[in-house]
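Sharing a chain and its predicted structure for anyone who wants a worked example. Both blocks are below, sequence first, tokens second.
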Amino acid sequence: MELEINVGICGKQEVVVDQNNTATALGSGDVPVFATPAMIALMEKTANDSVKQYMPKNHVSVGIEINAQHIKATPIGGKVTCESFLSKVEGRKLVFNMTVYDGDGKVGEATHSRVVVDKDRFLGKIKND
């Protein structure tokens, strides 16, 4: 399988902080602000969605690593934007630089790695384990 994915692909997603994606709701803390797990999920979704159209037939990308920093809190009602930049392609491995920000500045950043897999083979391995 030859990947036709080039460095430089960008993605962007926005969410509004509500009761469902707070640290209180997700159990990661005791304050009603944008949760770190929600930020990481947004990062993974942004990166994944940015490369979906480049996947070979029946292939998907799966997250394998993320090194993230959550720098500041965003309150309920705040709009959070995530941007991804595909910085490296190593065989089937895709490495993204991620930045999350709100109206007051940077909220978080990360390096996120995904690997391209054959969806049926991947799911078959799980069923056989």
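Comments welcome. Residues 10-128 form a domain with the Thiol Ester Dehydrase; Chain A fold (CATH 3.10.129.10).
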